[in-house]
């Protein structure tokens, strides 16, 4: 059987199902043996030229509760089928076939899609300064319903007749603000206008005295978490009850944005993403300090976050030890690259297959059951990413690859391992070592240690779903061996607890109160 799917770009026309002959009639074709074969015919056409290169996606969903274009990017057993290909744009009235040159996940070819009813949608991504499939100004189609069976050949035309709007800041409230500032450093790096965005929650007494200044906590979310999450927290009743109580610490909360052209910036300088760390320290923080009346010294700044935010909060404290007065890190991404999840990037030969010849897991349930492997996750990101490579996917592995890895001479990220085979590139792995927090901390301990006194607060579940507890064990072991000076880092381990597996508001309340206690005991705090 041979099924072909075609996506048509006809601006401002309605989505339609058409037959290869006329008016919804069914076309049946036969193979060389005379047996009927089924498929979906496809073309991509444009009535007007589109000069932008891009990646064209076709997403299948078994449900119409949400548009298929909002792809889950979560490679569980029920993940939505996705197919994609790079194209160079359209000339006027050009017709492109969507039957060849596809990357697919979890099915490599269209003819492997199970026979059932599907809801199908197309997206054309042309904005490579935004890592999301649904970037502003990208084109997308309406949703078509189709029944895939083995009886007939159907023709499906999806017209990319809609366009995603520009991203606007959410509406504000008195104690909830959203901000956006241009970054000269990032704009120079990317040769385009680049901006830093934040959400801000102000304390109860903020408007009582116009001359008062406040300490600040920088909150970093999980992978690719946006600054708009400030609104979700602000609208949480339990949080509001605490935040506007008399017992709440009077500090400003700033929510950093995780969006970057190649995934999550991790809020640090990198060869592929550019100077996000310096942009934060030299541009964003001075801007926020002046506009929101923040105390302008390191003793009044704190960081916190979980998952990606756990790694970033710790890294910001380590890389800028004088600029922050404490990091509260939860379920941090791999802090020792000898256990990058379960991959030892320095000594293992292959990321996909372990030394026992088995697929290396990526995600597990808390009882240890494997849910998906690294290889399966990379296969998904290869389908999403330009050039059929996870390095351009904007996904978790692509994001790590961009942050930690070197840049090639052609300006593209160097892949830590082969996208297809998983073979690790040891030269690239060596370059990653600069971001290995265990190696960095250990190498610089004599000068770094005194600046970290009382500042490291680390939480981890011993059954982290991504196996991140292994790296944190190594990090704790390293710190406990330090003598000059001795480390006073506080580690809290939870038995049989998974990734970020805690109640958000109670943990945040405890974190903010501990920050306030540190301020109360700091003689430099005004």
TrEMBL record:
It comes from the Bacteria. The keyword Glycoprotein does not apply. Residues 1-24 form the signal peptide. InterPro entries: AB_hydrolase_fold, Esterase-like, Mycobacterial_A85_antigen. Keywords: Signal. This is Putative esterase. The lineage of its organism: Bacteria, Pseudomonadati, Pseudomonadota, Gammaproteobacteria, Alteromonadales.
